[in-house]
Amino acid sequence: MNNAAILIIDDEVQMRRLLEITLESNSFIVESAETARDGLRIAANHPPDLIILDLGLPDETGHSVLKKLREWYTKPVIILSVQSNEEDIVAALDNGANDYLVKPFRTGELLARIRSALRISIADEQNTVVDAGNLQIDLAARMVRKNNETVKLTATEYKLLSLLAQHEGKVLTHQYLLREVWGPGYINQSQYLRVFIAQLRKKIELDANRPQYLITESGVGYRFISGK
Hints:
alpha/beta, Rossmann fold, Arc Repressor Mutant, subunit A
C-alpha cells in the first residue's frame, strides 16, 4: 500500500492541488488530469492503483468516464463530487465505483476510504475464504461458519451473502443486488432485499438489531464489512 499510485481526475485547480498535497504527504504517488480525455489517457498509459474521479468534468461526465474505465480497469475508483443526490450516487455505484464521497469532505475520511479500497484491492482475489472474525465464508466450499458452527443458509441467502462478501467494503446498490441475485425483472422489488437481509442478519450477526457485517447505506444499498 505504501507508495501506491493514485490518479486524480478533477477540473478544479484548487481541489487537485489540495488532493495532491494531502496524498503526497501520506506517501502516495500522484498524477492528475483536469479533463476526461487526459484522465483516460493517463490511466491507459500508466494504470494507477486507485483513481479519484469527479463527476463534473468539462469535456464529458464522470459517469461516462467511469463506464469507459470499467471496460478494462479493475482497480478501485472513488467518486469525489459536489453532486449529493441519490440518483448520482446510485448511478456511480451501479456503474462500478467502489465508493462515493461528497465535497466538501473530511481529509481523514478520504484517506481512510482510500486505505480501505487499496487493502481490498491488494488482497488476493483468489483467496476463497472471507474471514470476518467470528464469521467465515468459504466461497469455494459454499460454506458459512459462525463461532466455528456451520450456518444453514438457503441458496438465495448464500448467493446474496457471497455477493456482498466478495465486494467487501463496497456499497452494492439495491438495483445491482436484485439484478444479480434474482434477475433483471426484479430490480424494483426492494422488499425482497429487506426480507432476505433481515433473515441473513438473524443467522450471521451477533445482534441482528446492531449489525456489524451487513451495513445499510440508507437509500442506496448494503455494504459487507469484515471488521478487520
